[in-house]
Structure formats: C-alpha cells, structure tokens
C-alpha cells in the first residue's frame, strides 16, 4: 500500500506510459545511470486520486501529465521554466521512481493539466514537448518548409508542432512500415535515399549521426537552420566553412520547457492517440518483454505506449 503523501504532493494513478530510448539504455545496462531497483518510465500521466492537505488548484480525478524533471526550483533556469537545464536536475524513471507502476506520488508543481484528454494518450505529452521545443529552436514559422530526419516519436512530434504552426513538412525515414504510418497522418514521408527537393528553411535531425547531419546541411537553404535533437556519440560536427559561407545556423535542442509541455498538452487534448503514430500495449506485466523487443531492434510503426489499466481498447 502507498504511504502517506508528503506536503505539496499528489498521487497519480497512471493511465499511460511511453517507452523511450532512455528506458532501453538503462534496462539493457548500456548506461551506468540509474540505481538498481528504480522504476523506469519518464513519459507518463494519469488521474489524480489523492492530494496532500496543503495542495490547492488540483482536483481529484483531474487528468494530468507529469514533468519528470525534478529540479531545485530556485536557480535562473528553473525560474525561466527550463527545469532540464538545472544543475541539480533529477529525472523520474532514472534517478527517481518513474511511471511503470500503478500509482506515483509527485510534487504538485510537476503536473501538466490535460482536461478532457484521452487517458491513454497522456504518455504522449512529454515526448511531444521535445518536438515542440525542437521546432521552436529551429525557428519554424507559418509557411516555412521543414524537413525532419527520422520518423520516430520525436520526429513525428516535431511534425505535429510544425503542422500547428502552419509549416509544410517532409519526413526522411528508412523504415517502410513507419513511412506508411507517417503518410496516414498527412505528412509527406520519403525513403532515406534523399530529399525530393532542397532549399528547406529548416531541418530537424532526430538521429544526430555524422551522415544525418550532412544530409540536413545538404537539404537546408543558405541562411536556414539545422537543429540536432538526436543524442548520438559519433563525430558529426561539419567543417566551419559550411556554416560561415552559407550562413547556416546549427543548433541543438534538449528536452523542453514548462511552456512547451503546456503546448504539447493542448495538442494531445485535441488529437489524442492520433497525435502521432502509436503502438498500444495493455498491462504493466508486458513491459519487460516490450523493452527487450524494442532494445533488440523490433520497433513498431510509432510510439510505444503502455496502458496499465483498462482505459479503452488497445491494438
């Protein structure tokens, strides 16, 4: 049984958890980060089922996503809503217990309201915010032409935000199953052999390898922006003359701000499970096998979401 809530805490019954690459690296032992016994899952949301006596502004049964970045709350970055930049940041699902469990107790300040959302889709809000932030970092505006390298969850999150901003978008994706799923969203999806055209205003690279950064630079117009989101570790910085002579802006994008999370929540409230291609799995007991399969390279058509309880039909 859960213990008593601490001051300023709420208890969330989890209704949706996303599987992220971070979960895979911790589960498979590819990183030393993460204490043994820590519950994974930093992309999650659910229903508020209890609150401490001092909590105000949150109701029982409210639908919420959870910002998994637990920060100091007093530094300049926290004051600007950029918890992920806080030097004292701890991540739920890695440094603290996360969402692959029935209930989670969290500080009320971590909640992202999502009234009226499909409870099964709440796990999309956190990864969607990564795409929202990347599109902002790329400076994408109404009428721009955006290219996205990689049609996985972050790539398609970027597409969702680009669509909201009124930008045209093309996705470069090598996997045929994912290309089919992407096309059903209304986005143009092309094979990884090359872009149908060049002169794009911005390119978001969700892979971050040397070859994909080169592909992004080849596709962007002079004076455009390449935004790298993918966290690879190979040597991929371009020669400076490519940036200088063409006046291309090369920038990075990490995580999101509180404002990005709120925009992502609005999108998910409106679009639910149609926000990005999704693969639903029912039951927490299936998580270990799911992590093994994804870690072994057996990816589905889109974002892997786990529904711990019966919140509706699953595929």
Automatic annotation (TrEMBL):
Function field: Catalyzes the oxidation of 2-deoxy-scyllo-inosamine (DOIA) with NAD(+) or NADP(+), forming 3-amino-2,3-dideoxy-scyllo-inosose (amino-DOI).
UniProt organism field: Streptomyces iranensis
Matches recorded under InterPro entries: ADH-like_C (IPR013149), ADH-like_N (IPR013154), ADH_Zn_CS (IPR002328), GroES-like_sf (IPR011032), NAD(P)-bd_dom_sf (IPR036291), Zn_alcohol_dh (IPR050129)
Enzyme class, broadest EC rank: oxidoreductase
Stretches assigned to the Alcohol dehydrogenase-like C-terminal domain: 153-266
Protein name: 2-deoxy-scyllo-inosamine dehydrogenase
Keyword ATP-binding applies: no
UniProt keyword terms in alphabetical order: Metal-binding, Oxidoreductase, Zinc
């Amino acid at each position: 049984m859960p213990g008593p809530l601490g001051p300023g805490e709420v208890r969330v019954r989890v209704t949706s958890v996303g599987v992220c690459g971070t979960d895979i690296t911790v589960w498979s032992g590819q990183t030393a980060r993460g204490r043994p016994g820590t519950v994974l899952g930093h992309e999650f949301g659910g229903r508020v089922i209890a609150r401490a006596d001092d909590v105000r502004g949150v109701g029982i049964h409210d639908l919420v996503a959870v910002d998994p970045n637990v920060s100091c709350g007093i530094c300049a970055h926290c004051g600007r809503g950029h918890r992920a930049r806080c030097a004292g940041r701890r991540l739920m699902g890695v440094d603290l217990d996360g969402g692959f469990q029935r209930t989670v107790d969290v500080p009320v300040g971590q909640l992202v309201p999502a009234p009226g959302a499909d409870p099964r889709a709440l796990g999309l809000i956190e990864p969607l915010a990564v795409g929202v932030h990347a599109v902002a970092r790329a400076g994408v505006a109404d009428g721009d032409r955006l290219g996205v390298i990689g049609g996985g969850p972050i790539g398609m999150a970027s597409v969702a935000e680009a669509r909201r901003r009124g930008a045209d978008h093309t996705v470069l994706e090598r996997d045929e199953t994912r290309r089919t799923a992407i096309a059903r969203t209304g986005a143009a999806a092309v094979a990884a052999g090359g872009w149908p055209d060049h002169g794009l205003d911005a390119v978001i690279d969700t892979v971050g390898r040397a070859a994909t950064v080169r592909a992004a630079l080849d596709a962007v117009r002079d004076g455009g922006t390449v935004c790298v989101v993918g966290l690879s570790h190979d040597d991929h910085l371009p020669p400076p003359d490519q940036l200088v002579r063409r006046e291309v802006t090369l920038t990075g994008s990490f995580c999101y701000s509180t404002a990005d999370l709120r925009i992502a929540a609005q999108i998910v409230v409106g679009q639910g499970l149609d926000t990005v291609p999704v693969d639903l799995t029912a039951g927490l007991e299936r998580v270990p096998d799911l992590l093994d399969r994804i870690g072994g390279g057996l990816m589905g058509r889109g974002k892997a979401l786990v529904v711990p309880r019966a919140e509706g039909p699953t595929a």
